[in-house]
Amino acid sequence: MAAPASPPPDDPETLKALLAEERAENERLRQIIQAMQRHRFGRRAESLPEDQLLLGLEEAEQGEAATLAAADIEPASRATRVAERRRNRGALPAHLPRIERVVDPASLVCPCCAGTLHRIGEDVSERLDVVPAQVRVLVIRRPRYACRTCEEAVVQAPAPARLIEGGLPTDALVAQVLVSKYADHSPLYRQAQIFARQGVCLDRSTLADWVGRAAFALRPVHERLLEKLRASGKLFADETTAPVLDPGRGRTKTGQLWAYARDDRPWSGRDPPGVAYVYAPDRTAERPLRHLSGFAGVLQVDGYGGYKALADRGGIQLAFCWAHVRRRFYELAQGGPAPIATQALERIARLYRTEAEIRGRSAEERRAQRQEHSRPVIAALEPWLRETLGQLSQKSRLAEAIRYALSRWAGLCVFLEDGRVELDSNVVERAIRPLALTRKNALFAGSDGGGQHWAVIASLIETCKLNGVEPHAYLSDVLTRIAEGHPNRRLDELLPWAYASAQDLKAVA
Questions:
Q1: Cys staple from 366: which of 380, 389, 419, 441, with CB 3.0 to 4.6 Å?
Q2: Could you tell me what percentage of the chain is helix, strand and coil, using 3-state DSSP and rounding each to the nearest 5?
Q3: Do residues 326 and 411 share a domain?
Q4: Locate the Transposase IS66 zinc-finger binding domain: which residues (predicted)?
Q5: 299 contacts 310 by C-beta, under 8 angstroms
Q6: d(Cα 76, Cα 68) in Å, to the nearest integer?
Q7: CB of 46 within 8 A of CB of 330?
Q8: Which residues contact 105 (CB under 8 A, 6 or more apart)?
Q9: Same domain membership, residue 266 and residue 399
């Protein structure tokens, strides 16, 4: 028989404490529900990305263009619009090829006296044109030559090296498939449909074979890229999920793509920017320990506890991310009136205002400005957070946000003493976004090997982007050089930033 329920306490203080605890729990649950609703139905980003904003304005701009086109029917309006377009369009890039077309009058006979007209000048205008992508067949003929005297010697040039021996594609075509898949996020089945529209039937498995062979050939370049990044004094690190097909269970499993990035441009560093992705089947702390073997310096990360093992090993100092701290207060402020969270956001905003002013300066200048402007903000923020935490229910989400910041306080303050350190890890988070787009379109990798191929090719493509190198030209050239037997002792020549320097030298010459 169940014991009878105990009667409610009569002590007013006890009742008051129980009521306060119940209200705090209700408030915590309400905040959780609001967070889930925002996650499901609302905008997740703290700020609307510029490309998304422009995407929303496209329809309005198209409607305006249609209206102006209708108004251009009137001769006077047409002349005004043409003058405005010519004034605002700017000059076309000088490196583009120019195809000249001369438009002469129908007759060079003078309409007045029937004499011959002579040229006194010209008007030149430029229009941007495009030649649509076209699949073509590259025919290689290798004539054989024999001597008429001895009739024994036969001479023939050796066949050009191929990335895929006995295969159909040129290195440029393989590079196009790689760029379409990993830079333009077009899955192989869509690429097969594009080829089919030009009458070329390529099975998706054939394209996958090309990608796998190219990834295998590029693997030494990827390893060298990661090695060069590990030799830096400061890196960013982050990770994202990589769904991988798991045939044995009939569903997908969750792998991880770890990203290690370097970008010294905010403090005028000399090392070129780069990012290397490494695929792993899990998210254990063993992975970054292995990936960053030999690295010593500052590692800027989010709040994931797996990186603590790196700091414990020695030689690595962890710097944490203020954007992750800010995000927790932002979520609370978005859910309704939250004066404490709003005040925390205002204090953090002062740090970001200082960062905007010192971006691009030397590390020492950045450190001096932070000591003058950011240190007082930090010095006042910590005691305020501790005092506020003592006045809150420890179960509330606001208390969780404050504890998140205080538990990582030492790593959050590293930027004050080191001008190379950024306020947040947004550099590597931006490098993660292309992986998310590829993942969204392709849904999953076919195997752990596919995840490794993804990491190899995406590393080189994204590093190209960071260094202003056109990925297709780079991959086409590198694959050709590898097929022709480029020695491994000269792998530095195949890195994207070396390719950028070589192209600059060619342009100067």
A1: 419
A2: 55, 10, 35
A3: yes
A4: 109-151
A5: yes
A6: 13
A7: yes
A8: 117
A9: no
Tokens linked to 448? 């752990």
Question: One-letter amino acid identity for 274?
Answer: G
Residues 182, 188, 190, CA angle at the centre, nearest 5°?
110
Predicted TM-score (pTM) of the model is 0.79
C-alpha 6/C-alpha 145 separation (Å) is: 107
Residue 41 lies in a domain: no
Show Cβ contacts of residue 272 under 8 Å, excluding neighbours closer than 6 positions.
466, 467, 497, 500
From the list 381, 371, 318, the residue with the least C-alpha distance to 349 is 381
- Report residue 89's pLDDT band, with 50, 70 and 90 as the boundaries: low
Residues 302 and 387 in one domain: no
Report how far residue 31's alpha carbon sits from residue 39's, in angstroms, rounded to the nearest whole number: 12
Characterize the bridge pairing of strands 144-146 and 234-246: unpaired
Same domain, 267 and 327: no
Q: Find out whether 363 and 418 touch, Cβ atoms under 8 Å.
A: yes
pLDDT in tens, 476-507: 999 999 999 999 999 999 999 998 766 654 54
Residues 163-174, buried b or exposed e (16+ Cβ, 10 A)? Answer: bbeeeebbbebb
